[in-house]
Predict the 3D structure of the following.
Amino acid sequence: MVPTHAEKNEVANEEQMQVTLDEALRLAQGHHQSENYILAERTYRDILRAVPDHFPTTQMLGALLFQAGNFDEAEHYMGIAVRTQPDNKACWNNYGGVLTQTQRYEDALEAYDKALEIDPDYLDALNNKSYTLWLLERYAEAEETCRKALALVPGNITALNNLGIILAKRVKFEESLEIWEKASEVNPLEPMIWSNWGNALREMGRLDDSAAKCRKAIELAPDNSEALNNLANALRDQAHFEEAIALYRKATNERPDYFEAHGNLSIALLDNNQVDEALVAARYAVAFNKKFGQGYSCLSKAACRAGKYDQAQRAAQHAVYLDPDNVEAYLDLSDVLLRLDQFEDSEAALQEALKREPSSTRFYLKLSEIREYTNNFKEAHEAVDNALKLSPEMPAAWLRKALIYYVAGDLENALNMIEEVLKRAPDWIIAMQYKAEMLVSVNKNEEASVTLRKVLDQNKELPGAYATLTSLKKFTSEDDPDFRNMKALEPKVSEMALEQAAVYHYAMSDAYEQMGSYEKSFEHLKQANDTKRQFVPYLNWKDIDFHDVMRGKYTPEFIQRFEGLGSDSDVPIFIVGMPRSGTTLTEQILSSHPDVFGAGELPELGKVHKISTNEGINDAKILGDEYVRRIRTRDKSGTAKHITDKMPANYMYIGFMACILPKAKIIHCRRNPVDTCLSCYKQNFARGQYWSYNLEEMADAYERYSSLMAYWREILPGRFMEIDYEETVNNFEDSARKLIDFAGLEWDEACLKPHKQKRSVLTASKAQVTKPVYKTSVDKWKRYEKQLEPLVTKLQGYGLL
């Protein structure tokens, strides 16, 4: 059949269009290869408007959009490519790459498998599949896929790189090292190999080796953002925070959307006490990738440090929502719950993290912190020892061990451990600050001053250092150079984390009080307490409920049922009362006697009481003997006839004491209510006493204490001795003799010189109890009579003044 003239023209037009299409595609590809991405994208789109679903234009445009970070649209066009070219292995491989990037890992694996159905020896698909399996933590399958790739091409750098990372994750460290060695021989100039080798060594706890490999990568590629990030990680673990921060910043400057580096920068800034900057870095991390669960973990950490617990908890919970296997989210949730004093929930969240990553150093460190916070010191040491087995070079692990000893009152071991920290990180100012504080606790003030000077020489903007300094020197003038440095920090307080801001105001208050500038002193004191009140988890109904429970349970009839059933031991001497009521001075007098060991504030009575309620043990003798067994471990000499427990809040358990330890001595310390409350208000308590940061709430707490003590006095007449702080300091010898007589001991002249004891003192008033007894703390509140009016008015309303 002979075509008509019109049909001939139509064929000619189609041929002309085809030529035009080819030219357009070549033009677009030229722009693409020349990195003229805007022109390339415009030309690709023009082609697709003329010829929808045209291949390879859909594939090319998808690749360009992928490069530009427009993953959703890239997925759309690559999806069209695989539908129009279902037998094209490259299309399926590229489609899988986009799906991996958008975290649709299972769909990505299906795409790679489609490519491998077409060509089982397709190396790129095998490498991409192994990487995606690694992201899914399916390490055994990832390793198997890697080895298939290497069987095809034994020297393939991508496959070697993937296998090295996977083996390290499978804790096959020796095999992993062999792979990195081989990879470096195959291509010694490839920075990726050295960088990832360094990262694997960091996971193995070999931080020096890790840093060396990462430095080699940076020598080869000074602007390689991944290598900069990995080196910073190793340095951060070694407490070289300033250098790590600089490297993270360089990494994010080289690649602004490098969300992982923003997250790591946030953690390093937190380690360096730069909390506000840490919050900013964490927000960048999640802004660049809203599905970045670890970024929300970083945000949770920073918000928690800033005292923004609601924001911190939401961030941690969102991280869990994004990835229920995200161990960081459980760790951060645990931390928030710890700050909220929800100890059991905190440990439960951490155990979820440990289930998923049982060889994590950081998780063991957090577990030790929870256990130390609940005064389970033996278990805390076990947890930190596990951390040290995994990372013996990590300074933070040694610091955690030092702090456990410190809180437990074992200052000798605490100082030994702090030296281990400083061997590994000689310039770590946080460790140096703790060392100075510990030295104050053992009355080595000159050495503490030298250490603190080293801290302030490095950084004159540390509120905690000035807080310690106020206990080491007396400020007499605003012209004092140290005071001028403190004062210069004031404009920056609004940028500090709430906890640091509170510490600053406490330090300024102390300095002004020492100068006699009482009005300025109280201004800062109120700011300190108002700031602290913003982030402490105080719920007054919990205190009210507990007082009511104790009063309702320990009735005269209930206590009488235990008569003759408790422990026979007379070892314990309980010293109770409100905090800052003279309990420390009372213990110092008693423990000056050679037959008495002063154990300080012990948590053991509360723990034994919890055993009785949680485990249903009602045998008074078992409970009493268990308490005595626990406190006996505090006396290393094993010779003390009596051991004091001066936990002030044990006043709540007097009914319990009467049941399980009928022969124990109980001493109730009293002090002028306003002086007591002012002294609490001036103290930045390490934990607890959340009622003490608001004058009216403090009056309510004092009334609850006074009411419960009146109840014990009524139902247990003569069961405990009551001693007044004012009487002790005005008639010291007479009061001391009454105490010793009440304890059933022979008089010893050492009891008149409690300040000469060499034992360590862990108390808010440690600077006072290492000096002779003075009367300066009596009626001290009158300096601030006007400012304390809300407290005084409420106490008067309760009939307590």
